[in-house]
């Protein structure tokens, strides 16, 4: 891509000029947070923290061209996180890009619920499994915030795996210093605990299973352009009613969890308790052990798998995730 320096200048000779112009253009195409995005793009191109932008006034022609290239992509609705190459999640930074789902702030509450319960477990029993791990946001947060924990991050997508491996590797030393470890497993979240599969040996031993699975019905089109055009379809769509992978996660969690172990699973705000049997809480309450689950656990066939099923709201007061205990 070639950008003429004179064309990018356009009277914008200072950082303040460039920020003002970038915000105006981003706002014109409907970017939800044009001011913040403009500041991120400019600070990234200049190689300085956002909070130091006001101390920087001079800008070179090369920097201006760099900003224009990034801005052009953002104007075409390429996610900001893809341009920056990373995103923040709770206390960690994660590398993200095409092929892996960008973790959202709402999922931080899902991680928080899992972290709180895992902390209460005695050392030696702090075993967790993150199903549909994606970038590793939840799995790495568990390991970083709960000392002496062992977290198994399960992801099936070949496109997401490089990001999961990269993020786990980049936090490896910090995790080790805390006595924690994140083990990456490429396998199907719906069958990873079946006989002969990687997590079969952990049946009945896991304290916490957490998941942010795909839950959008196949026929739905996401409103956000960035989600629709740039997020991996495997991380979004969950079958005709959006619940195919959710049901598989509930089954895997039933096998893995120790009696009384905690399940935490994210869902859309229209898939909460009010949705009845079309929602995650309703499906979780109604799940009955079949003969296969009974053979792999101590749950008698024909009896409920989960108890204490409850829905939790996000910071906007919307139902966001379900928690439950294995009987």
- Rg (CA only): 22 Å
Largest beta-sheet details: 7 strands, mixed
Oligomer: single chain
Number of strands: 9
The side-by-side strand order for the widest beta sheet comes to 5-4-3-6-7-9-8
Q: What is the overall shape?
A: elongated
> Strand-residue fraction?
15-25%
First CA to last CA: what distance?
A: 59 Å
Low-confidence residue ranges: 1-9
Q: Quote the CATH topology of the largest domain.
A: Rossmann fold
Counting structural domains, the number is: 2
CATH architecture of the largest domain: 3-Layer(aba) Sandwich
Number of helices: 13
Q: From the helix content, strand content and strand pairing, which structural class follows?
A: alpha/beta
- Provide mean pLDDT, rounded: 94
How much helix, percentage-wise, in residues?
25-40%
CATH class of the largest domain: Alpha Beta
The CATH superfamily name of the largest domain is Vaccinia Virus protein VP39
What is the succession of H and E elements?
Answer: HHHHHEEHEHEHHEEHHEHHEE
